[in-house]
Design goal:
Layout lengths: L4 H28 L3 H4 L20 H10 L13 H11 L4
Helix pairs in contact: 1-4, 3-4
Length: 97
Amino acid sequence: MKRTKSGVVAVASFLLLVGSAGVALADGAATFTKCKACHGAAGKGNPAMKIGPLDTSKPDAELVKVVKAGKGRMPVYGGKLQDAEIAEVVKYIKTLK
């Protein structure tokens, strides 16, 4: 099998992309540790605080807006978290079942 430079570059680029997505999820999970007290480890909520489960069916943009600006008892995290961190958290919570 003959390898071409462009083929090797394409495979390397793909592996980098796949690997970076895994890192983003890992970073999102790490950042989510700040959220667990209210939302629970699995995003199911906290009955003692009268907080229901996360609504992961909402579009990413809406979830980002809530994290940045707060909503109800949800505090504002814009300025406390970077945009990339917020995006990673949103990606992570979408994986919670």
